[in-house]
Write a structure and sequence with these properties.
With 263 residues, this protein is an alpha+beta fold. The protein folds into two domains: 201 residues, 2-Layer Sandwich (Alpha-Beta Plaits), CATH 3.30.70.100; 53 residues, no CATH class. The chain is built from ten helices and five strands; from the N terminus they run αβαββαββααααααα. A hairpin with a 3-residue loop joins strand 2 and strand 3. Helix 2 packs across helix 3. The chain is globular, with a radius of gyration of 22 Å. This is BLUF domain-containing protein.
Amino acid sequence: MTEKRRSVYDLVKERFRIGERVTYLHRVIYVGEHSFSENPTMKQFFEGIIMEVNSQDPDEILTGFLLYYHKLFVHIVEGSEATILRHLRRVYALIDGGEARLGTMRVLIVCHNINERFFKQWTGCMARPPSLEGTDPTCDAQTWQNVRACVTKMYKLSAFLNQQSMVNVNTAIDHLSQTVPTYLPEIDLLTFLLGSKVLLDLRKYMNIYFIIVTRKSYQESIWPIQAELVPFQFLNPEEYTFLCDVEDVLARPTASIETEPQS
């Protein structure tokens, strides 16, 4: 009797089954500035977006943690690629509509295919940040050291909250400034990261999902050079109905191709 051959697809499905998942999980951590006070508060604003995304029968729900100060915040979002993208699109839809008091936002780190979530649900809190000691956040040479410092603090904070029981977690969240002040990113640290030109703007990160870049290696073997790797404009308007969110895809800027100068 011949042994049944297993494909890579079979292995992926088995791992999803063991992990009780539908698709791959990802984690995005981004920092930003805001001017929320009350009605809504910062937490209420993001909580509404998270609840809206999770109510749309997602493949993997959004979970995470929002840590915010008077004018700055750090947000951890966990979910599938689709749900994270819906979250970002909703945020910027509200910004463009004048309904969100958010300023500059930059991506600290993106983790693909994470082993497990830090959080089983989404929550957030306002805290009092500690003062920054022992480092100079104004030095451009320290950009990645500062990114590492901020992400490390958020990871330690996430691990601390993950260790709390369901009964004690709300109490722990309300007293972060007193119990684990060293796990909170400092104001000067976040201000530096927001002003860094090295870190990717959150809107640009969102738009990456809509742009397929043609590698220069492809251009060397193709003539004439194509404007886009994938043609989006080949269907009639009435034929777009079966494509998911195609109107947003078509509205996105296409990737410009830099041709190498002829010698």
